[in-house]
């Protein structure tokens, strides 16, 4: 009996040791975590919000900028590392003015991008720009929880805290594993010692298996059930929300028609072909006669148009398809009368219960095609740029100010509504752009 008591005291000491080690490893974890918390504090104080930044970026900048690739303008991820804040405010508020002032960095980037002019954004506040910068400073596919810290700390600091967190986690896992192994070893050593001393180790009392204990505990079962339900609801919701959303849909067309070559390289105005966009609900796809205005004379592309991906022969064959479709005989330069209509695959398609009108947005609101369709002049193959969800329409209506100048019809409404809302400028939303009936039949 006495020896058994001894055995117990040994295991108690061991237990104490283990607890001590755990305690130490936790305090060291806490110490590591402390500086990370400290770097996060100024972020909260500054209040730069990458989520708002993303919205602003998508509605104002995405037409010309991507985060990680060159588009019309440079890739913007980590731009805060290339310029200081004051420069960025000036640049984004009015880049032309900055270039005119002879700022070396501004002139350099302007030359580099073939002197394309970036839109001025005087309407963005410095807070808005901070948010956008916070968004562009996010790590690629960084965990959202880590974002605020990284945003403020800039790229390099953000890196560190991400790595050290991983190291801490790894170290903790290792410590745990070692503890488990040690416990097993200790247990087997003790049993051996006990056996050697001829002590009866008390046989294991049959314990109820964990799952049975779990099944008996109704509270635990309830909590788990609720958790599982919530989790599956989350995933089902996520799945349902992307049903019918065809962002980036990029079908193969019967004729490989390149917007890059036409609207980009040859600078043909969008409205030359999509002339209806200005005056009617639909932008429309041009009839092949419009193509023939030029293609009676252009039967092949220049040598320089070919790219590694698409050869000159490939492009020429596409123009030949156009000729076959309209029944144009290249040799005699006349129509044969035999036509085969081209069936373009429709890319954008709102559900029938939604009313969308191009002229309202293009002519009345003066919104560029690219805001909604992306940098079309760079698309070799046309695709759907925007998600075309209700949230997308609504977000823009909340943010976009209506152009009142030079529109008599609006002058009176403007006076009344701006009094009602106590603001100078009205957004499309305040003009009624959130009423269900405006968009739904
Ligand atoms: C109409 C196209 C267009 C839009 C819209 C646009 N940019 Fe630009 N941006 C450019 C071009 C082009 C350049 C390259 C310089 C030049 O040619 O003026 C540029 C350059 C920049 C630079 C300098 C980048 C560097 O690496 O030095 C920053 C920063 C920038 N843009 C931020 C923004 C932000 C923020 C927005 C949205 C609020 C925005 N841009 C919207 C076209 C655009
Ligand atoms: C020379 C004529 C021409 C010009 C110029 C042109 N387009 Fe197109 N566009 C077409 C044709 C043809 C199609 C159908 C084939 C396709 O989808 O690629 C089309 C398709 C589109 C679509 C997709 C339609 C759908 O099915 O949903 C969009 C959006 C579009 N154009 C926007 C633009 C914008 C924006 C510009 C100006 C930057 C432009 N287009 C300039 C001829 C033209
Ligand atoms: C305003 C003049 C103009 C109009 C209108 C026009 N094109 Fe073109 N097209 C061009 C030019 C210029 C080229 C390029 C020639 C070169 O690169 O040497 C070209 C090239 C092409 C090519 C070969 C490159 C490619 O995009 O695959 C095809 C196919 C083509 N056009 C089809 C069409 C179709 C279809 C239409 C009508 C929807 C159309 N074009 C309307 C001027 C025009
Ligand atoms: C406010 C956002 C917005 C702007 C600005 C805009 N579009 Fe669209 N566009 C859409 C939506 C939404 C659709 C889908 C319409 C549908 O399915 O009924 C669409 C569809 C199209 C189509 C497919 C054919 C059609 O009429 O449905 C073409 C082509 C097109 N747009 C060209 C243009 C051109 C060219 C411009 C600039 C002159 C332009 N869009 C400006 C949102 C926009
Ligand atoms: C890029 C911003 C933008 C997007 C995206 C956008 N709209 Fe608009 N929309 C506007 C603006 C700005 C006006 C106000 C035009 C005006 O009356 O001056 C407007 C007006 C309207 C109106 C008329 C509202 C009224 O008060 O009479 C309707 C209807 C409408 N939009 C539908 C849509 C639908 C449907 C979508 C999505 C498929 C959409 N819009 C996407 C900017 C946008
Ligand atoms: C600015 C335009 C606009 C306004 C205002 C608007 N909707 Fe929508 N709504 C849309 C568009 C676009 C879709 C299609 C979304 C899609 O296909 O994913 C849609 C889809 C829907 C759907 C179908 C469910 C879905 O997500 O596809 C319902 C229900 C709906 N709207 C209800 C409403 C109600 C209720 C209101 C008023 C509070 C309203 N909408 C106001 C543009 C609008």
TrEMBL record:
<dbReference type="InterPro" id="IPR020942">
    <property type="entry name" value="Cyt_c_III_dom"/>
</dbReference>
<keyword id="KW-0349">Heme</keyword>
<dbReference type="InterPro" id="IPR036280">
    <property type="entry name" value="Multihaem_cyt_sf"/>
</dbReference>
<dbReference type="InterPro" id="IPR036909">
    <property type="entry name" value="Cyt_c-like_dom_sf"/>
</dbReference>
<keyword id="KW-0732">Signal</keyword>
<keyword id="KW-0249">Electron transport</keyword>
<keyword id="KW-0472">Membrane</keyword>
<dbReference type="Pfam" id="PF02085">
    <property type="entry name" value="Cytochrom_CIII"/>
</dbReference>
<dbReference type="Pfam" id="PF00034">
    <property type="entry name" value="Cytochrom_C"/>
</dbReference>
<feature type="domain" description="Cytochrome c">
    <location>
        <begin position="48"/>
        <end position="140"/>
    </location>
</feature>
<protein>
    <submittedName>
        <fullName>C-type cytochrome</fullName>
    </submittedName>
</protein>
<keyword id="KW-0812">Transmembrane</keyword>
<feature type="signal peptide">
    <location>
        <begin position="1"/>
        <end position="30"/>
    </location>
</feature>
<feature type="transmembrane region" description="Helical">
    <location>
        <begin position="167"/>
        <end position="186"/>
    </location>
</feature>
<dbReference type="InterPro" id="IPR009056">
    <property type="entry name" value="Cyt_c-like_dom"/>
</dbReference>
<keyword id="KW-0813">Transport</keyword>
<keyword id="KW-0408">Iron</keyword>
<keyword id="KW-0479">Metal-binding</keyword>
<feature type="transmembrane region" description="Helical">
    <location>
        <begin position="219"/>
        <end position="240"/>
    </location>
</feature>
<keyword id="KW-1133">Transmembrane helix</keyword>
């Amino acid at each position: 009996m006495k020896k058994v008591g001894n055995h117990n005291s040994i295991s108690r000491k061991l237990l104490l040791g283990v607890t001590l080690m755990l305690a130490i490893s936790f305090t060291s974890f806490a110490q590591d975590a402390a500086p990370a918390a400290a770097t996060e504090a100024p972020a909260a104080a500054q209040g730069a919000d990458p989520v708002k930044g993303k919205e602003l970026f998508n509605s104002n900048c995405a037409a010309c900028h991507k985060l990680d690739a060159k588009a019309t303008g440079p890739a913007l991820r980590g731009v805060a590392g290339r310029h200081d804040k004051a420069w960025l405010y000036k640049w984004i508020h009015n880049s032309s003015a900055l270039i005119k002032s002879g700022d070396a960095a501004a002139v350099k980037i302007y030359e580099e991008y073939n002197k394309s002019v970036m839109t001025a954004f005087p309407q963005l506040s410095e807070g808005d720009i901070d948010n956008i910068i916070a968004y562009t400073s996010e790590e690629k596919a960084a965990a959202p929880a880590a974002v605020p810290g990284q945003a403020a700390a800039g790229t390099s600091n953000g890196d560190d805290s991400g790595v050290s967190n991983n190291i801490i986690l790894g170290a903790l896992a290792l410590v745990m594993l070692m503890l488990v192994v040690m416990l097993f070893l200790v247990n087997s050593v003790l049993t051996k010692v006990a056996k050697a001393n001829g002590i009866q180790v008390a046989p294991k009392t049959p314990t109820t298996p964990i799952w049975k204990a779990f099944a008996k505990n109704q509270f635990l079962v309830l909590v788990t059930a609720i958790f599982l339900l919530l989790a599956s609801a989350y995933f089902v919701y996520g799945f349902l929300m992307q049903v019918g959303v065809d962002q980036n849909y990029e079908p193969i067309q019967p004729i490989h028609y390149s917007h890059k070559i036409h609207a980009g390289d040859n600078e043909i105005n969008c409205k030359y072909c999509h002339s209806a966009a200005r005056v009617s609900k639909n932008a429309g796809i041009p009839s092949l006669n419009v193509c023939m205005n030029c293609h009676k004379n252009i039967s092949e592309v220049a040598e320089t148009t070919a790219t590694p991906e698409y050869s000159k022969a490939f492009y020429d064959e596409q123009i030949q398809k156009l000729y076959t479709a309209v029944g144009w005989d290249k040799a005699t330069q006349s129509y044969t009368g035999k036509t085969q209509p081209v069936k373009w695959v429709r890319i954008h398609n709102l559900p029938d219960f939604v009313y969308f009108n191009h002229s309202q947005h293009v002519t009345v609101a003066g919104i560029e095609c690219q805001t909604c369709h992306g940098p079309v002049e760079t698309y070799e193959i046309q695709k759907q740029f925007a998600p075309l969800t209700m949230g997308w329409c609504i977000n823009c209506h909340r943010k976009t100010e209506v152009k009142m100048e030079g529109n008599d019809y609006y002058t009176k409404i403007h006076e009344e509504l701006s009094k009602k809302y106590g603001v100078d400028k009205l957004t499309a939303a305040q003009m009624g752009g959130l009423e269900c009936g405006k968009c739904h039949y």
